[in-house]
């Protein structure tokens, strides 16, 4: 376990103005430690805040897992700009389970879709496969529940949140949240108390994509965020599985397109497990950089076309940014672009070190 001083220093550094994950690691490389890097900043995050954050986490039963810790998931460590600090409520040993599968899909899932996700999760968990998802309504929730019903109703599962690790979302899943924390692990990169925000969920999705060896998509429309997760996973070298559906069902359009484009057709756990066992694990997984904007026809939802071009993005979003900070809502109103497109582009700009997040849902160019 990391020393308390190291945890405080890392919390301060990653929460300092204009310091994202990519900048965090550059500073560590240049100065040798978070403590040394903090000395070079003009306005570092106050030590008092970090100390209080660590105390709040301890009181809530949430462990702060640093990127240097043995408990930090190797699958996640292999990607560029991995979160320097993870908030984990539950059992950290599950973060490095050898076999793992992320299951994602529609929030307004059909009964058959939820049953399929639940059954596959149950059967794979019985075979010691860790099921990872985002605790959203629909497919996510069904996958978590199926896994937890396995192994005599003691099956573990990992939920990655787009909120603080202490904030169950959606509220209707509060009981599910508590059950996952008891049997598996709740994971978040966001500070405690972070409320739901549209900007946070694409960030959450990259962790869902990276934590496992493969991703299974069960029901997703052509503009679904689940396809974004699949695209991130594919870019990271993860295997993609998809459950086929009727052509007349809009929720089947995403998985059917993925299958046509090379994803493995999966109707049950038996279609997944043999492939999963042949995939690399942990440190052997491809050490991948986060996707850069370029055309990926396989997994591009219609709403995100401006976000994935061969050259740097040509949309007007960058023109609306400055070094003082602009509200995301203002960018949406001024550009006229879909919010999903803007959120995804902003995520890419942040991951490439060109912008930083500011309080009050603002973004700014890095000086």
Question: How do the strands and helices of this protein lay out in sequence?
Answer:
Blueprint: H1 4-14, H2 21-31, H3 34-38, H4 47-59, E1 62-66, H5 74-77, E2 85-90, E3 100-105, H6 111-126, E4 130-133, H7 139-153, E5 157-160, H8 174-183, E6 185-188, H9 200-211, E7 214-218, H10 225-235, E8 239-242, H11 253-260, E9 264-265, H12 273-278, E10 326-327, H13 328-335, H14 339-351, E11 355-358, E12 362-365
Parallel strand pairs: 3-4, 3-7, 4-5, 5-6, 7-8, 8-9
Antiparallel strand pairs: 1-2, 2-6, 10-12, 11-12
Helix pairs in contact: 1-4, 6-7, 7-8, 9-10
Give a written overview of the molecule.
- The protein contains 14 helices and twelve strands.
- With 367 residues, it is of the alpha/beta class.
- The chain has three domains: 59 residues, no CATH class; 192 residues, Rossmann fold, CATH 3.40.50; 54 residues, Orthogonal Bundle (Arc Repressor Mutant, subunit A), CATH 1.10.10.10.
- Helix 7 links the parallel strand 4 and strand 5.
- The protein is globular.
Spans of at least 5 consecutive residues with low confidence: 288-315
What is the spatial order of strands in the main beta sheet? 1-2-6-5-4-3-7-8-9
Helix content: 25-40%
CATH architectural name of the largest domain: 3-Layer(aba) Sandwich
State the secondary-structure class.
alpha/beta
Strand content: 5-15%
What is the count of β-strands? 12
First and last CA, distance: 35 Å
**What is the alpha-carbon Rg in Å?**
20 Å
Count of DSSP helices? 14
CATH topology of the largest domain: Rossmann fold
Order of helices and strands: HHHHEHEEHEHEHEHEHEHEHEHHEE
Shape: globular
Domain module count: 3
The level 1 CATH classification of the largest domain is: Alpha Beta
Main β-sheet, in a few words?
A: 9 strands, mixed
Average pLDDT over all residues: 87
């Amino acid at each position: 376990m990391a020393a308390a001083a190291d945890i405080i220093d890392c919390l301060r550094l990653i929460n300092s103005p204009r310091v994202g994950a990519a900048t965090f690691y550059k500073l560590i490389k240049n100065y040798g430690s978070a403590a040394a890097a903090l000395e070079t900043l003009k306005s570092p995050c106050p030590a008092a805040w970090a100390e209080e954050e660590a105390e709040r986490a301890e009181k809530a039963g949430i462990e702060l897992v640093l990127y240097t810790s043995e408990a930090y998931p190797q699958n996640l460590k292999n990607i560029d700009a991995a979160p320097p600090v993870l908030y984990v409520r539950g059992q950290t040993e599950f973060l490095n389970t050898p076999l793992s599968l992320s299951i994602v899909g529609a929030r307004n899932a059909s009964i058959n879709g939820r049953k399929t996700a639940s059954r596959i999760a149950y059967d794979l968990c019985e075979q010691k496969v860790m099921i990872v998802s985002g605790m959203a309504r629909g497919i996510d929730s069904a996958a978590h529940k199926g896994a937890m019903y396995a192994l005599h109703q003691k099956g573990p599962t990992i939920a990655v949140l787009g909120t603080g690790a202490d904030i169950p979302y959606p509220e209707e899943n509060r009981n599910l949240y508590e059950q996952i924390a008891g049997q598996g692990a709740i994971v978040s990169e966001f500070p405690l108390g972070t409320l739901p925000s549209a900007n946070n969920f694409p960030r959450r999705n990259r962790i869902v994509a990276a934590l496992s060896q493969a991703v299974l998509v069960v029901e997703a429309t052509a503009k679904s965020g689940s396809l974004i997760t699949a695209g991130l996973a594919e870019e990271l070298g993860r295997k993609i599985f998809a459950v086929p559906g009727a052509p007349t069902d809009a929720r089947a359009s995403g998985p059917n397109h993925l299958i046509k484009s090379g994803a493995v057709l999966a109707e049950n756990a038996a279609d997944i497990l043999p492939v999963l066992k042949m995939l690399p694990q942990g440190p052997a997984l491809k050490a991948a950089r986060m996707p850069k904007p370029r055309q990926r026809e396989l997994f591009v939802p219609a709403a995100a076309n401006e976000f994935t071009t061969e050259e740097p993005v040509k949309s007007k979003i960058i023109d609306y940014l400055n070094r003082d900070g602009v509200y995301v809502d203002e960018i949406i109103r001024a550009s006229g672009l879909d919010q999903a497109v803007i959120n995804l582009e902003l995520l890419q700009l942040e991951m490439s070190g060109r912008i930083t997040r500011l309080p009050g849902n603002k973004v700014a160019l890095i000086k």
